[in-house]
Amino acid sequence: MSADRDPDRSLGAARGNGGDDPGAPAASPNSLDRTDIDGSDPDRLARVALSRVYGPENRRMATEVARLGAAEVWERVSAEHPGVDPRGDLDAGARAGARLVCPGDPQWPIELDSLDLLREDPAAARGAPLCLWVRGVGDLRALAPLSVAVVGCRAATSYGLHLAGEISFDLAERGWTVVSGAAFGIDAAAHRGALAAQGSTVAILASGVDVPYPAAHAGLLAEIASAGAVVSEVAPGTPPYRRRFLTRNRLIAALCRGTVIVEAGLRSGALNTVAHARRLGRQIMAVPGPVTSSTSAGCHRLLRDFREQTVLVTSADDICEEIAGVGSFAPRDVAAGARDSLSLVVRELLDAMPARASVGASTLAKALGLRAQDVLAMLGPLVVEGLVESVPGGYRLTPLGRAPSNTPPGGRTGPV
């Protein structure tokens, strides 16, 4: 943004009577000729220029673009910003290996259009971005329908880092794209987990795509670009202003089917991403942590205060059940017990034996309506298997034999 200009005052001129208004600003060197001798689309150049001048924080500018079109708005305010060079930004993007993606383009992710529905909500973030700068091999329109955000705190614990990486690895193996913000902590673990599975991942930055932030993640961002995409709505060369992390978060939430928060304190910025997802009606999922851990307090608060909108998840299976197609369920297999491979009559014999006291074979035979020799024939193998032990006065269950059966009536094993 120009340091000595008021962008809202400039937008006031954009609400004039039209191009023939004598009060409208005169054409300037960076004004867009409708014929555009360079062959570029005036609307695209206008979006680049407006995003450079106003950034994603200006709600009034987004409203004017929706009403008049980007080219018209820029034509009216360009004289106020003579130093803005949209073609220069395009050249800078090209040098960084980035391409411009605008609404209506084949690679524009239509999921972001839902942000415009919240433009009038004073609590919501700004609407859809004017344009996106995309560096990498990924096609956002193709990746978005199977994208899930994995976010969390920067000061993550080893528990959180392990879970974020494992969940992201499993999601990527299943064909999901993992989206995050490339920050330290949970974000980086999520990206690395997806990369380890040779899956796709998308990093959405608060800086320009040619400004690695944090700088220590320059190599990670290069890997992400080779397997997915590095994305920003601000012009190349733009530093990561603090407020833009919050406006950036709305893109993470809008792009994905759901948002998974792995670790977050009560004041974590990751909760801001969750708030955007909640307003957009996206699925919110929280990974629980130790109740004594302050880094999981935000996750637990979500599960308690927004219980109707937040689902507890512990694995990629749980996540897929929430955001995949109808009929996708996480496995509900129960670990096999010591009794589960036994026949029904043998399990009935074990159930008839007292838990602690001993009992004779004849007593068991009478209780089950069997012959004593048949009961003795069953007890011998049970002693060998360690489920029953022979003691003075008869037989009794061992601790292993007292373990309950997980097999339903009828002797079938598998999901309950």
Task: Quickly list its features.
alpha/beta, Rossmann fold, disordered N terminus, two-stranded antiparallel sheet, 3 domains, 416 residues, nine-stranded mixed beta sheet, Arc Repressor Mutant, subunit A, elongated, disordered C terminus
Can you walk through the features of this model?
This protein is α/β, with parallel strands linked by helices and 416 residues long. It folds into three domains: 7-89, no CATH class; 117-323, Rossmann fold (3-Layer(aba) Sandwich); 344-402, Arc Repressor Mutant, subunit A. Helix content is 40%, strand content 11%. It contains 17 helices and eleven strands. The strands form two sheets. Strands 1-2-6-5-4-3-7-8-9 form a nine-stranded mixed sheet, with helices on both faces. A hairpin with a 2-residue loop joins strand 10 and strand 11. It is elongated and about 105 Å long.
Give the fraction of residues assigned to helices: 25-40%
Low-confidence stretches: 1-10, 12-39, 407-416
> What is the annotated CATH architecture of the largest domain?
3-Layer(aba) Sandwich
Number of domains: 3
